[in-house]
Queue: 3 jobs
Job 1
Amino acid sequence: MEKTPAVPALQLFSLAGQNVLITGATRGIGQACALALAEAGADVCLVQRPSSTNTATADAIRALGRRAEIVECDLSDLEAVKGVFARAVEKLGEIHVLVNCGGIQRRAPAVEFSEADWDEVLNVNLKACWLLCQAAGQHMVPRRRGKIINFCSLLTYQGGITVPAYAAAKGALGQLTKALSNEWSKENVQVNAIVPGYIATDMNEKLLADPARLRQISERIPAGRWGEPHDFAGPAVFLASAASQYVCGELLVVDGGWMGR
């Protein structure tokens, strides 16, 4: 692994000249991360569903003077996922950073949880991430540089309630992050993950709309509030930049203190 550059501290966080491929950036945490990476100097390729007409993230990145490209792909279509990385390279050139932020949630009691929902959650939240990580490794390892950032969950550590597939996928994604780091750190490719706590996004709208669960969760967060998408701007830039050069296989928890309690 290359050593951390001996440059002024703030320069360590610069992403000037870097190209990023990110999923799940049309809204929420992914959107906040995509904008932060562009603000740090990166050009960005966004993976969006073919049916999406949301260009807000791309428009905002272009307004910053950075390039924003879009690759259309439904992450539940695994055959299509296999071609995403190559298409991003065609649009931007070398990819220096991969961010796997796209995901879905399905809620139901375990005795009622359908096989179709199980398969969809595992495919989108785990297998699609694996396929993109593998493609990134094939691209980055020969070049001996790259950053991969996966998005895990508190359910990487905990079981949750009525979300068995999501917990299984995120638990596995945490282990996949460590497994890839063990292989690729020596190749100067850092693989890490960000672990969000309870964040006020549409994925948690059912919890936010349930007064009892909202109170139970809120009372347990030491910071005294739910997280917001912008809380991930700094962690994303850190893990994408040279500032995290010696950070390998880390699951960075951003949860307002939930896990500490």
Job 2
Amino acid sequence: MSLPKHVLDLLEPLHDTSATFTRSGDLISASESTSARQRYLYKTAGSDSTQLVGEAESLRAINAACADVAPRLLGSGTDEQGRSWMLSEWHDLSAIPAAEQARLAELVAKMHLAPAPDGQRFGFSVPTCCGATQQENAEMDSWAGFYGERRIGDLARRIGDPELLRLAQEVRQRVIPELLGRLDVKPSILHGDLWSGNARFSNDRHAPITFDPSSYYGHSEADLGITRMFGGFAPAFYETYHSLVPRSEPVEQYEQRLQLYEAYHHLNHMLMFGRSYKSGAVRLLEALVRWAEEQGL
């Protein structure tokens, strides 16, 4: 399968003149006489390119913040047929060894601690997709406003379940102003879908790596919500991460904030996969409402 010129223009400068390039589906292999074969991932999308464009821009922002936490984006654009495309590194992946959990935390922390671009607000320049769900990323000055409207409120409306709509409204009115409105946080680039299936060990880099991001700029702790939904992150991950990125003040509300951030992903899974995920969303939202009642909110 031949390679488009825009792909060759990106790959040829990375290899010597003896290199040969072969393509099988989305995978491109570059072979040189003097080095091991290198592989790249080439994706295209036709009429609906939202997910691909969002992934490319996510990688671009993450690469700028921490070059080692995700595959390197080599380029993206639109081809002669009007199809969106992106070219990135391809990595041979395996499970993260327990001894590498702390290193993963260091990389995620470095990504979160990187300064955002000047003038960056909460949100992102393009929509991104968390799973199959297109996220509303229009930027806002307020983190509490963004998370309440663009995350919890948006998904509850799209699901349309009366019980969840009621609980989401209570959380937006009583919980989010207290938990998020008091935070003094600056926008950090987030992975956006940091579950264990999107964090593996790269046998090419010999280090942990994350992939399939659905990024936006938000509170760094928001990336930790889904890490608790499916497990797979050892205590060493959280200990190392918070040694570098301390829990936000007020620290005593950390657990409630993570419940709130995890709730979004339960809502998203209900939107994608149906009512089997409703109980998890209800459990977390009800716990937050009870907490608000205990606080007299």
Job 3
Amino acid sequence: MTDLTDDLFLIHPNDSTTSPAAPTLDFTRTPTVLLTFAGNRFTRSATKDYLEKFGIGVMDWRVLVMLTREPGSSVSHAAQTMGIDKAAVSRALQRMGKAGLVTSETLLKDDRRKDWTLTPFGHDLHARILERALERQRHLLSGFDPSEVEAFTGYLRRFLENLETLNASDQ
């Protein structure tokens, strides 16, 4: 493990005119804070855009992507893969089922265990939103060259691996 000093991430009283009363996380130098802020703003922006243009939010879009990649996924598998609460995935699937985007097959005579797939309408919507998602991604990554995008993606994968290790040690 690399030695990263806490001072790398903290702002102290009297560091600037906007200093806090006590040492705390710096909003501009702390990767976890910046990642949280970016994730929240990205999700809010994508939800607004997709709702206006396609009538679904970012949660439903994530499920469309999941079922395009892995047709026949269960709620548990989708939730684990995406790192999202099973209840949120289940609500999205119910909503998407009512909209005619997904269909399910009950397995082993257990209504709680279903495999979900996209309908033709779901595949069509995925294709239309994918164009917009790629456009948004190009905009968000403008100014980055391909090697920077690869490095950034690698950093995020490593961060996620470290998070998995942290979560496993917390259990």
